[in-house]
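Attaching the record inline, Q. Sequence:
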Amino acid sequence: MAASGPITGPAGTGDGVARSAGLAGIATLTSRVLGLARDQVLASIFGAGNEMDAFVVAFRLPNLVRDLFAEGAMSAAFVPTFTRELTLGGKPTAWRLGNQIITALLAITGLLVITAIVFAPSLVVLYAKDFANVPGKLELTIRLARIMLPFLTLATIAAAAMGMLNALHHYFVPALSPAAFNVATIVCAVALVPLMPAIGLPRITAIAIGTILGGVAQIALQWPALAREGFRFRPSLDWRDPALRRVLLLMGPGTLGLAATQVNLFVSTLLATREGTGAVSWLQYAFRLMYLPIGLFGVSIATAVLPAAARHAAAADRAAIARTVTRGVALMLFVNIPATAGLIALAHEIVRLLFERGRFLPSDTAATAVALQCYAIGLIGYSTARIASPVFYALGQSRVPVLLSTVSIGVNILLSLTLVSRVGFRGLALATALAALVNGAGSLILLRKRLGALDERRLAATFGKTVVAALGMTAVVLIIVHALSTIAPAGGTALEAARVAVAIGGGLFALAIGAKLLRISEFDEMVEELRSRVQKLL
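Structure, as predicted:
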């Protein structure tokens, strides 16, 4: 088995995965909080009606590409190759690759965007033909899709900038860039939505415009950091360049290998369009809430693990890769098992507090909460795949995640078709979650075989102890919720916020006590990391 000692950080300073993940996590927290604010604004203005359904479906295609590139294939294919060029040839060689990959992405995605705009009616009908049953809904979806499709190009360029900065050990700014996207959407919602009817456009058009402005903002936020490192974009494209060919060849299977979550969500959206008005929006709101812990922990830890794994792979040090993966997965388990329990226990309270206002009705709260509970079951699977899958590309094992992703998509389609006919839209969320668990478990099992061993004892101990601690936490949360509901059965937003805050606070306190009693080492690591950061700030 691999040892579980300290992991040297990316800069060789002794910083571990927890520290690098912490930097990304702080920025990601900011972005996710703003993302939550964005969803609250949209829920209040549009609720879960036809306009919101149309927006969600129209944005699904460019957003699918954004998710794959920003948190998937781009990182898996580009970061290891860029890191290798940087290590062997220095910045000039790395910048040459950066210029070529950006130029190639502009050419490839530009062609895709133009083609998709031309054939937008056929594309939308392909996965939302039932919208035609509601007058004007299909036409609105097509119009919004055409406006937002250029976001595909903007997202890939932002992802390339993120990859270069991550390879240069910059985690904070890239992880913060989605905040710019969310701010742009919020500003447009507040400033432009009231103006749209005056110029003869549906109100939701303002959000489509905000999407494009947000894509530009993501690039603009990261570019100064790249410029300070010495990068200057100069269009350059040599298809014979070995490094460029390696990135592009890896991105093909990389996209397939990391596509499971996004494709499964796409399948859910397709089937949800047949479940009547609101189903698409309920699933969207619920998935965004569930994805918050993934963004904070799964993606943040994966962002820290990948560059370290790429360097160890370049040195053919599989034992070091195993230690890095073990540390990342152990940290993920400690935070995401309690997160899963918390989301399930407090789903209704959280959704009601965050969204139930304006056009978002109590019936929308009930439906979204059920979907959130179903999605939360797969939280560990999503995060495990995020951490494990990119490591296969660093090892040159691109076929493995492709196989796992294909299996996961097949499982999701089979379960979705089976469950949606029995329990409606909630069956789509459950199918997606179960497929994520299959993908995550398979990723970890096959990665262990490729590395020879992981520290199974540590992972098993962390899993078992954290489950016990999370059960204790959940019991405390449910007791608090019941007690507060008995004392104050009704109230406004302030009272709801106080209830949720007290329940979460009590749950975290119980979790901390359980972690100390059970001697969960990951808890001690996180506390020490937090303490050191606070001391630096002071």
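DSSP finds 19 helices and no strands in the chain. Residues 17-454 form one domain.

More tomorrow.
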